[in-house]
Write a structure and sequence with these properties.
Layout: E1 19-24, H1 29-44, E2 47-54, H2 60-67, H3 71-92, E3 100-105, H4 108-118, E4 123-127, H5 141-149, E5 154-157, E6 167-172, H6 182-199, E7 205-213, H7 218-224, H8 230-259, H9 262-267, E8 268-276, H10 279-289, E9 294-298, H11 312-318, E10 324-328
Parallel strand pairs: 1-2, 1-4, 2-3, 4-5, 6-7, 6-9, 7-8, 9-10
Antiparallel strand pairs: 5-10
Length: 343
């Protein structure tokens, strides 16, 4: 697998995973991560790069004075230590081809995102850092920065997650009337669907196109209705709202099938799934009920697209599921992190 630099695709072209970046921590969990990444690279015929970031300890100056070594010498030793551990992990994983390995020095999320930007990475793969002891994963600082600021999709895998995803949820929002940026929402939905289809790598895989809706004006209709039977007026209103969401979801499903190639269309079953309630509650429920391998969500770091912000609602969802998570950005997203300076 030889890395190659290529021109980025134009924004309206299909999402592709041609260059994968695996973030290594040089811990034992990396062995399973490397095996999974090689499987995906083979499946997609993609290039694969391993990246580890050494963050110098805050007490580097004190350590230097205590040891008699310079700060540069200590940093070089840390780099060599990481390189040796990654080599050992790759040997233990019995990889058929040794991927390119890079060890950088700095703040992990900054170095990862800068590498993504300067080397046209299509997908970052990383083990989710567990901070809670019971259920769920509260994503640690590096994970949260990547979810918010990385321009390409980020896959935070759970340990021992299956290599070939058989059940995937693509969480979409088709309520265009409620957004100030309908083109952004449409582009993001397409990327969510395309990522989900790519990730459904198992034979006879299923992608659930999940949209969570609610009738937000139900209380107002009940309060202000002049109809002889307010309950009937409320039921009519709710049914109309549901029917509108169902039509929009069916339209997106038809579009999604047209985006799938003939091979994917034969191998993957795409199922629209309309559920009423709050996204922070319904999505984790559906992940559990459907025994989902991967949840794909869109994240946008600005207002105007309800339900797709990496704010309280999205983070509640991401921290409540017990499956691997992939987050994607809209086609026109620009990371606040620059290739040569921090954010």
């Amino acid at each position: 697998m030889i890395w190659r630099r290529r021109a980025k695709e134009v924004q309206d072209e299909a999402l592709s995973f041609e260059h994968l970046l695996v973030v290594c921590t040089a811990e034992e969990s990396d062995e399973e991560l490397l095996t999974a990444a090689v499987h995906l690279a083979d499946t997609w015929n993609a290039d694969l790069t391993l990246l580890a970031v050494v963050e110098p300890p805050a007490e580097l100056g004190w350590i230097a004075r205590a040891t008699g070594a310079t700060a540069t010498e200590i940093t070089d030793r840390l780099i060599a230590h990481y390189e040796q551990k990654i080599t050992t992990l790759a040997d233990n994983a019995a990889l058929p081809v040794r991927p390119k390995t890079i060890v950088l020095v700095g703040k992990p999320f900054l170095e990862i995102i800068r590498y993504v930007i300067t080397h046209d990475v299509d997908l970052v793969i990383k083990i989710a850092e567990q901070l809670t002891g019971v259920g769920g994963y509260l994503f640690a600082s590096t994970d949260q920065h990547l979810l918010r600021k990385c321009p390409c999709p980020v896959w935070l895998r759970l340990p021992e997650n299956p290599y070939a995803a058989k059940t995937v949820i693509a969480a979409v929002d088709i309520n265009h009337a409620m957004t100030a940026e309908p083109e952004t929402l449409a582009g993001l939905n397409r990327r969510i669907v395309e990522a989900a289809v790519h990730l459904a790598t198992a034979q006879n895989a299923v992608v659930h196109l999940l949209h969570v809706w609610d009738a937000l004006g139900e209380g107002l209709v009940r309060l202000w209705s002049n109809a002889p039977d307010p309950d009937e007026a409320v039921a009519k209103y709710v049914n109309e709202v549901e029917a509108n969401h169902a039509r929009a979801l069916d339209t997106l499903a038809d579009q999604a099938r047209s985006w799938m190639g003939p091979d994917d269309a034969k191998r993957i079953k795409l199922l629209p799934r309309l559920e009423r309630g709050a996204a922070r509650d319904i999505i984790p429920q559906q992940v559990h009920t459907l025994d989902v391998d991967v949840l794909v969500m869109g994240t946008i770091a600005r207002t105007g697209v309800p339900g797709l912000l990496i704010g309280n609602t999205a983070e509640d969802v991401l921290n409540s599921v017990d499956c691997s998570v992939v987050t994607v950005k809209p086609p026109n997203y620009v990371s606040p992190v620059q290739s040569d300076s921090g954010s």
